[in-house]
Design brief:
It is built from 19 helices and 21 strands. By secondary structure, it is of the alpha+beta class. The longest helix has 46 residues.
Length: 594
């Protein structure tokens, strides 16, 4: 018994010793761990406190960015052409939605979007998402009635064009985020664009919004852009161009109105047009501003520049005569033809009757180098520098590569391509006494309060021909609208018109020139004594007729006449009975045709 008792007394002593050791080890471990945690906590609190605070804010705060207020685009008389209106976009906090599939179905029905795509978007998101930008007031009202949890209506600014399609190709449009992607909206985006509005939303651990900043960051607003375009002249040009294109069943049409003294574009019309408020509904091909981007062969309108080069060379005068071969002339292995057979014609008559053979013979006298240099001086083959995106330089090959037939063809406007704005700028230089101005579409950039930021019209004109040569060419162009000239349909009763017709065969993709597709045009200015407007009308592939004097001259006449009346230009020919009778004869023919 005694032995057993001693055993029992011995075992507990041994167990107590092991227990103390284990407790000591555990205590040391906990002490070390606690020291590590305490050290880490101290490090974070002392040295990383700002980093932790930022992380906390990122978890509970969400910044929603919306479009700021973009600057306004005005016409030359401060009429609004593009404005930013208050609107709303729809956002969502998916974590607050119990049945995302049902929400997606209801919203998709109202917003007319794909329910499956929206459901996936809601299901995959862990933070705020956009459901649809720029919703309509009707959509907003219908969604509010549903009372859906997790929906957020965010105030934004929406771009709106109050005149719908008026000058759409000039103004352009913006994307959903308010960035310009066409026209002036794109070219002057840095001026018009405003810093985005920001809204801070605070969420709890379950994603529920419990506080938010009430206002937006609207400290900045985009600058305004004032165009040289006059809304009334633009409307007139578009209306007249649409009527002409419809009457002659043209594929496309362009009409430009310029102040020849400054190079300011007063109107830039295009057919067919589009509505920038719903630009996505139109083919992208219709967005393009063809007056800037599309080069074409100008045809006989280029003979005006040929005449200027010839007179400037002093080798030829307006009365120099050329034998025009009775309508057919061989140049190398090619033959040049006139619409009507002529024998002897002066330079002035070559312009009046638009003789191709006469033009070729003039080019043979002055030579290809002088013709090429004159075309370059007038701005062909290079960018005009107009403040519109996508400008083409046209095509003018170096004269070193010209064969005799190339020189001849270029003299009457084939084998060279120009843009509408290039051609009207060149013709305006003749109207302006020989000084070439830089064409421009923007007058000024102003601050939100209307103060001037910069003037966009200041420029140094370039003299391309003498004033004497310009006056002689103007007199030659005036004969084009006289009785017997190719541009009689452009005559005005109260003003002397200087102009030139153009009828250019289009290149056939299969080779050579098409037998039934033409660019028909008329370019000119008025009044002759003190030109106030220069106008160009082009109709692409008209079907019912193709001569520029028949197709484009009447539209030129209407645009020029009504623009001069609108500008209150004093009549020039009140007592010119011959001009009045010619204009009256045109009106009688038009009425009979109708």
């Amino acid at each position: 018994m005694t032995t057993l008792k001693k055993k029992k007394m011995f075992i507990p002593k041994k167990e107590d010793k092991n227990l103390g050791t284990r407790q000591l080890v555990v205590g040391v471990c906990f002490s070390v761990l606690f020291a590590i945690i305490a050290g880490r906590a101290a490090y974070l609190q002392i040295f990383k406190n700002q980093w932790l605070a930022q992380k906390a804010r990122e978890q509970y705060n969400k910044t929603m960015v919306s479009c700021g207020k973009r600057g306004t685009i005005y016409d030359a008389k401060n009429q609004e052409l593009a404005v930013s209106l208050a609107g709303h976009s729809l956002g969502a906090f998916p974590t607050r939605m119990s049945d995302k599939k049902d929400v997606a179905h209801k919203l998709a029905k109202i917003l007319r979007i794909n329910a499956g795509a929206l459901h996936k978007k809601l299901k995959d998101a862990t933070a705020f998402i956009w459901v649809k930008r720029k919703i309509t007031p009707k959509e907003m009202a219908e969604i509010k009635k549903l009372g859906i949890q997790g929906i957020e209506f965010v105030a934004e600014h929406d771009r709106f064009y109050p005149n719908r399609g008026l000058a759409a190709h000039v103004i352009g449009f913006t994307d959903t985020d308010g960035k310009g992607i066409e026209g002036v909206e794109f070219q002057y985006d840095k001026d018009l664009y405003s810093a985005p509005d920001k809204l801070m939303v605070v969420r709890d651990a379950r994603g529920r919004r419990f506080n938010a900043a009430d206002g937006y960051n609207q400290a900045t607003q985009g600058n305004n852009v004032v165009l040289t375009i006059d809304r009334q002249i633009q409307y007139l040009a578009e209306k007249t161009l649409n009527e002409a294109a419809s009457e002659f069943e043209a594929r496309y049409g362009t009409a430009l109105v310029m102040d020849p003294k400054t190079g300011a574009i007063l109107a830039m019309a295009q057919y067919p047009g589009f509505n920038p408020n719903s630009f996505t509904k139109y083919n992208k091909d219709l967005w393009r501003n063809r007056a800037i981007t599309d080069p074409y062969e100008p045809g006989s309108t280029l003979k005006v520049v040929l005449a200027a080069a010839a007179l400037e060379s002093q080798m030829i005068t307006p009365n120099t005569s050329f034998y025009c071969e009775n309508g057919s002339y061989r140049v190398g292995g090619n033959r040049v033809n006139d619409t009507h057979p002529y024998e002897w014609l002066t330079v002035q008559q070559i312009i009046k009757y638009s003789s191709n053979i006469g033009a070729v013979k003039i080019s043979e006298i002055i030579g290809k180098t002088m013709l090429y240099e004159s075309l370059v001086n007038f701005g062909f083959g290079r960018l005009s520098g107009i403040d519109c995106p996508g400008e083409s330089s046209g095509i003018l090959s170096n004269c070193k590569r010209w064969r005799p037939i190339d020189t001849g063809a270029i003299s009457f406007g084939q084998g060279v391509s120009v843009t509408a704005v290039q051609l009207l700028t060149a013709i305006s230089a003749i109207a302006n006494g020989g000084e070439l101005m830089k064409p421009h579409i923007v007058k000024a950039v102003t601050a939100p309060d209307g103060t001037l930021v910069r003037n966009c019209e200041i420029q140094n004109p370039k003299r391309v021909i003498s004033r004497e040569t310009a006056e002689k060419v103007k007199s030659m162009m005036a004969t084009v609208v006289d009785d017997g000239g190719t541009g009689m349909n452009a005559a005005l009763s109260k003003y002397t018109v200087c102009g030139k017709t153009g009828t250019a065969q289009k290149i056939d993709p299969k080779g050579g020139y098409s037998a039934d597709k033409y660019n028909s045009s008329f370019v000119g200015f008025a009044p002759k004594a003190d030109p106030r407007v220069a106008v160009l009308v082009i109709l692409d592939e008209p079907k019912k007729a193709h001569y520029g004097g028949t197709v484009a001259a009447p539209a030129f006449r209407k645009i020029t006449h009504e623009t001069l009346n609108y500008l209150n230009v004093e009549p020039e020919n009140d007592n010119n009975e011959e001009t009045i009778l010619l204009a009256q004869r045109f009106e009688t023919k038009r009425e009979e045709k109708r």
